[in-house]
Amino acid sequence: MSPIPAINLASLARRHRARVLALAGEERLMVATSPPNVVYCSGYRSMGYDTDPAQRMAAVFTNDEWILVGPTADLWAAQEASGHPVAQYGLRYFAYRTFFFDDAEAREATATRVISFATYEEALAAAIAALAGARRALAIEGPPPATLPADLAVLPPENTAALFRRARMIKDADEIALLRYATRETENALAAALAQARAGVSELDLAAEISAWMIRAGIRPGFIAVTSGPRAAFADAHAAPRRLTPGDLLRIDIGGSLQGYWSDTARSAVVGEPSAEICGVDTAIVAGQRAALALVGPGVRSDALFHATVEAVRAAGLPHYRRHHVGHGLGLDSHEYPTLGPAEPVALEPGMVINVETPYYRPGWGGLMYEDTLVITEDGTDRLTTLDAGLLILPA
Q1: DSSP conformation letters of 100-139
Q2: Domain ranges of the chain
Q3: Which of 392, 384, 389, 396 is nearest to 182 (CA)?
Q4: How confident is the model at residue 112 (pLDDT cuts 50, 70, 90)?
Q5: Organism's domain of life (predicted)?
């Protein structure tokens, strides 16, 4: 395993906040509240997002200052993510909910600037009031707190959500480095599992190998869809105790995250020699994906890419093939803007990171899938995935 990229997440988040404000085009107070956008603007991803469905955090920021709003339990983990002692970096943490640390000495040593509140709503309202100053516009993703400074107008939440979406759509070199590492090690995990796959091995065995590899590589396992036989037709399903038998299809679609940045890749195999029907389906969906990979690049519209991909699958042997999309953006969400579908066309731009896929699911028969990750560059693409597409034949 190669070393995890040494990215300064605090510096990355500072650039992200500046990018959001530059896209806004005017002086305003910004508030990120969705988990991916809080990570984007703070550099900190709370484990609470995994353990507590009600977890709420916010990053409140202007051109000059910012405040992180979060549970008291996250205080010191957030301080670590800042990369410097809190006082030196200038992080202000507005904490809510009761949690006890024996941290008097730690607070004194770092001069941690913490203010505590009973509820998230109180902490958020106080953070907004602390940074509002003379500003008259508040851009927040969702509903604002009930109490706001006088004369502070709330901009339409849908416009704010679109602003964050636009900012996150283009990745910089540090983000691409994280995505590249996550993709490479996810592929390594997939290759290790396929090397063990054979008749008698269970889906759970393969999922365990994938998860263990990811964890050793510093990646948080996300979705580990290992499905075989008729279960390979399940679009998204957890691995089961089912053991591979001769003739089974094996479809693996997996992803995990590194510092919040996701990987997503898929490959397919068959136990023993494939039937003519399996070969025909595989040939068709591989042809479709190859058509997409040949076409994708800067300036290509997402709807044009979708139609060309679907038509290539149909022409190669699946005349009734249908899809709602043939790929999606990748970043702090595993499915991120843009969607490569027939509606809401988007012209691809340098710096976008996208996945291209051509899945096929037939209940009672099985499914096949190949998925690859690419960075859109100024003159083409930089492919992050390296495994060949095409059916792998496993020992029976």
Answers
A1: ----HHHHHHHT-EEEEESSHHHHHHHHHHHHHTT--EEE
A2: 9-168, 173-394
A3: 384
A4: low
A5: Bacteria
Helical spans, DSSP H, in the chain:
9-24, 35-42, 48-51, 75-81, 86-89, 104-110, 120-132, 157-169, 173-196, 203-216, 276-295, 302-315
CB burial class (10 A; 0-12, 13-18, 19+) of residue 56? buried
Which region among 1-10, 251-260, 354-363 has the lowest average model confidence (pLDDT)?
A: 1-10
Residue type at position 334: S
What is the rounded distance in angstroms from the CA atom of residue 92 to the CA atom of residue 112?
A: 8
Distance CA 102, CA 109 (A): 13
| Domain covering 9-168 in this structure, CATH number | 3.40.350.10
169 vs 352: CA distance, rounded Å: 6
**pLDDT one-digit tens code per residue, 123-136:** 999 999 999 988 88
Token code pair at residue 60: 């409140």
What are the structure tokens assigned to 392, written together?
A: 């792998």
Tokens of 222: 């996300």
CA distances to 221, 255, 333, 336 from 264, rounded to whole Å, are 11, 4, 10, 11
Task: Report, as an integer, the average pLDDT of 160-189.
Answer: 97
In percent, how much of the chain has pLDDT > 70? 97
In CATH terms, is domain 173-394 a member of 3.30.70.600? no
**And the tokens for 384?**
């992050």
92: Cα within 13 Å, side-chain hemisphere: 16
